[in-house]
Write a structure and sequence with these properties.
Layout lengths: L2 H17 L12 H38 L3 H45 L4 H16 L3 E6 L7 E5 L10 H8 L3 E3 L19 E10 L2 E11 L4 H79 L4 H32 L9 E3 L1 H15 L3 E7 L6 E3 L1 H17 L5 E9 L6 E8 L33 H11 L3 E7 L3 E9 L6
Parallel strand pairs: 7-9
Antiparallel strand pairs: 1-2, 1-5, 3-4, 4-5, 6-8, 9-10, 10-12, 11-12
Helix pairs in contact: 1-2, 2-3, 3-4, 3-6, 6-7, 7-10, 8-9, 9-10
The structure holds adenosine-5'-diphosphate.
């Protein structure tokens, strides 16, 4: 490529000789053409070479004239004609070299960006980038470490197989965030080369990759022989871009994870909504059944009382049935009203007062024992310090719900143990536990049973009446008192519900 400008230069020189107009010939300006051509094609070397040739062509005429006449305006003009092509060729060549290097750096930056945006795994992306960088920087070896710790960071090296150990310049740069530059790797006491280095000195540069989050990795490069300032500057500039690009890639990855998480949450929520919808449909069918049963009884017994003159003992029995079914209806309606009030965000109206917990439990146990002969009820109180302030009606409903579940879900009869006392593991709390040895609840259903309308199917309790509202009400009431309800259960063994309420000396 340099041959053509040289040939053109020779042609111009020949033309000047042929026209015989001496150094002042206007043809001398044509020298600029091959000089610019060479500079554009070959940079500083080409421009300097052809410029020097063009300048030197003037030397046989200009130098003797200077020696003979000294510095006159003519000889000065001649000296200018000698020097200008050399300086011009070099200058233009350097500018061309500079812009080429800048273009190459820009291309490398774009390549980095494109790679990082690509669909490959991060290891493959880094490998591709390491290859691009090594070519752009004309390095002997190049390694990219991405991560905060040299032992766990991702490593991409070209050629493949370079190991980065804790004594290396890369590890030092990663740990300290400082740039390491070694003029001769073999002689540098700070680093230990990982392979025997030849007679030509190997220059090494380890530049930390820095982003807003701090040091995110290191770029380690080795060159054999001379290392120009421009290459060093290019390496540092590329490391800067690399740091930002890695950070960008990390942010994109995080965003990606976030979007995935969001999608998962949305699909879980949708599934949950579908479940709730299903539960609500089931609830409606159950509720109509649950309401119809006591209503039918109420209608039947009241008609019987109206139409027939029953003997007093039968009439009395009818009245007991009527009363029981009316209570059931009242309880169902009360639970539904309370839950709809909670659902609407209105607080439950609680009237806390000191409670005689022992009396409340014993009264309920007596009631349940009278109704459920096939169950045995055991009761233990842990002493006189069970001082509790609560809404008596709400507490009564919680206890009744837990007791009625204990009975309902142990259909073959069995033992129901109730205990109350200061919660040993919860300072300031009073616990009331109801334990049965019934069908129990599978572990995967436990988190759901306090949700509304949730009923756990079990062949033995299929006939048990219920709306799936009782426990959600117990939970809401306990929470409204500043307490909570917990459950332990083993299928086939039984369940233990623990109601925790703040003691009388604690406010709620
Ligand atoms: P309901 O009893 O009206 O169905 P609950 O909200 O009181 O509604 O209970 C929800 C579900 O939790 C019940 O349907 C039942 O499957 C389960 N469950 C509640 N208590 C017990 C218990 N002591 N033993 C076994 N399962 C229970």
């Amino acid at each position: 490529m340099i041959a053509l400008p040289v040939a053109l230069l020779a042609t111009v020189a020949l033309a000047m000789v042929v026209t015989d107009q001496g150094p002042a010939s206007v043809l001398r300006h044509l020298y600029l053409v091959p000089i610019l051509w060479a500079a554009l094609a070959r940079g500083a070397i080409g421009g300097g070479l052809v410029g020097s040739l063009a300048g030197l062509m003037h030397a046989p005429v200009v130098l003797p004239a200077v020696e003979r006449d000294g510095l006159t305006s003519q000889t000065l003009d001649g000296l200018l004609s000698l020097g200008l092509p050399i300086v011009g060729g070099l200058l233009v060549g350097r500018l061309v070299d500079g812009s080429r290097a800048r273009a190459a750096r820009l291309a490398a930056v774009l390549a980095i960006q494109r790679r990082l945006d690509g669909p490959e795994a991060l290891d493959d992306k880094l490998m591709g980038i390491a290859r691009e960088l090594r070519t752009a920087l004309r390095a002997r070896r190049l390694a990219l470490l991405v991560g905060g710790d040299v032992r766990t960071a991702l490593l991409a090296s070209v050629p493949v197989g370079t190991l980065v150990d804790p004594d290396s310049a890369a590890a030092f740069a990663l740990a300290t965030g400082q740039r390491v530059s070694a003029e001769d790797l073999a002689a540098d006491p700070r680093v230990r080369p990982d392979e025997p280095v030849g007679p030509t000195p190997v220059r090494a540069l380890a530049v930390p990759l820095v982003s807003g989050a701090g040091v995110v990795g290191v770029m380690a490069i080795e060159w054999t022989g001379e290392l120009s300032r421009a290459t060093r500057a290019a390496a540092e500039e590329l490391a800067l871009h690399m740091g930002l690009a890695v950070e960008n890639a990390r942010l994109t990855l995080r965003q990606h994870h976030f979007a995935e998480e969001l999608a998962e949450k949305v699909s879980t929520a949708t599934a949950r909504l579908r479940e709730l919808d299903q539960a609500k449909t089931e609830f409606l069918s159950v509720v109509s059944h649950e309401l119809r049963t006591p209503l039918t009884a109420l209608q039947g017994f009241s008609e019987l009382l109206l139409r027939s003159a029953l003997p007093p003992d039968r009439a009395q029995r009818c009245l007991v049935y009527l009363h029981t079914e009316a209570c059931t209806l009242g309880r169902i309606v009360g639970e539904m009203l309370d839950l709809s009030r909670i659902e609407a965000g209105r607080p439950l109206e609680l009237k806390p007062e000191p409670i005689d917990l022992v009396e409340l439990i014993e009264r309920n146990l007596e009631l349940f024992a009278a109704e459920h002969r096939e169950h045995r009820f055991r009761w233990t109180a842990s002493g006189p310090d069970v001082a509790l302030r609560a809404d008596p009606d709400a507490l009564d409903r919680m206890v009744k719900n837990l007791l009625s579940n204990a009975v309902k879900y142990s259909p073959r009869g069995g033992q129901v143990c109730v205990s109350a006392g200061v919660a040993a593991d919860q300072p300031g709390m009073i616990e009331l536990a109801v334990e049965d040895d019934g069908v129990g609840i599978p572990a995967d259903q436990l988190p759901r049973i306090f949700d509304k309308y949730v009923r756990v199917p079990h062949p033995e309790t299929a006939a048990a009446r219920g709306l799936g509202l009782g426990l959600s009400l117990v939970k809401a009431l306990a929470e409204a008192h500043g307490g909570r309800v917990e459950v332990d259960s083993l299928p086939g063994k039984g369940s233990r519900f623990r109601l925790l309420l703040p003691g009388a000396n604690r406010d709620f």
